[in-house]
Design brief:
about 350 residues; alpha/beta; Quinone Oxidoreductase, Chain A, domain 1; Rossmann fold; 2 domains; 7-stranded mixed beta sheet; 6-stranded parallel beta sheet; 17 strands; binds NADP nicotinamide-adenine-dinucleotide phosphate; binds zinc ion
Amino acid sequence: MLTKAYAAASAGAQLEPIEIERRELRPHDVLIDIKYAGVCHSDIHQAREEWGKAIFPMVPGHEITGVVSAVGPAVTKFSVGDQAGVGVFVDTCRTCDHCTQGFEQYCTGHASSTYNGTEADKVTPTQGGYSRAIVVDENYALHIPENLGLDIAAPLLCAGITVYSPLREWKAGKGKSVGVIGLGGLGHMAVKIAHAMGADVTLISHSANKKEDALRLGAQHFLLSSDKDQMKAAKDSLDIIINTVSVNLDLNHYLSLLKLDGTLVLVGLPIEPLSLRTFSLTGSRRRLAGSQVGSIAETQEMLDFCAEHGFGADIEVIDAAEINTAWERVVNSDVKYRFVIDASTL
Ligand code: NAP
Ligand code: ZN
Ligand code: ZN
């Protein structure tokens, strides 16, 4: 089946209209009519080969929501008409230790990323959500709760789960102080989710004009990272820091904000090596960690959590023709706070 999409033909190329093939439904497949696709900074990193060699043509997009329009004969988890979503991966090996323990986001076998990867056959390229339809195994699709709009739900499939998972793992909640570095797509979801979990939230930004939004989204405190006095006054005050920034920062400054036994979790993915002073960790038995999206079960838990608390992402809906401009705005930290493509315009 052919479907309309937007693709980059080569590394760094502008995205342009294309038609791509979606596979015939296998027994456990569902066909999703895509309504919305979020724009993640990872789309840009990959289409510009900032993480290394990539597969072209590339249809990016791994924050996908839509409505199920057909199901394979063995499907039990979805019915035609259900709201459904797809995140960062569409298949994993299902047999490695991590897959069998329910941590398939850390699959050590062959995992199929939603785009810029290959299917289980290790040959057929996968293509993402900047398209009108997608076929996916029911075990890798999510239920979008009925009270969440498909537009504000789309960014939850990557931005939402990427911050929810470490906030859960490092036990954000009442009595915990959480710092979030960067108010972009991931950062604004981290503020909303940590606040909903009951934590005291500090947003740390390099943009002075984001203070008002940070407080509106649920942060109690705002730190301008370039203000030395503010940063000094906040030393030893945070239990957890989630770093969502897409470029390298001097982590030593941020580690000093952690209390004894505090943890700084890296989720932003610049490729250059980090420079770290050992003393930044040893002085207060601090920890530096990393985290990558979340499992399917945890993603469903996060969607239900957001629905229960009545929020999705803060979005700007764009037409397909605006994608290239939107990408430039993301790179310039000029997005409030996630672009979402209206798939009907593709
Ligand atoms: P985004 O919307 O562009 O947000 C990044 C934020 O970082 C910006 O809003 C800005 O916040 C800050 N920033 C940008 N440039 C900066 C600079 N030069 N100096 C200091 N701060 C700067 O990006 P996103 O979609 O949230 O993604 C963020 C990163 O997470 C990307 O690298 C992406 O690939 C990665 N990611 C990782 C995972 C994972 O599983 N680990 C999943 C999804 C995305 P302020 O203006 O507030 O400073
Ligand atoms: Zn993403
Ligand atoms: Zn696996």
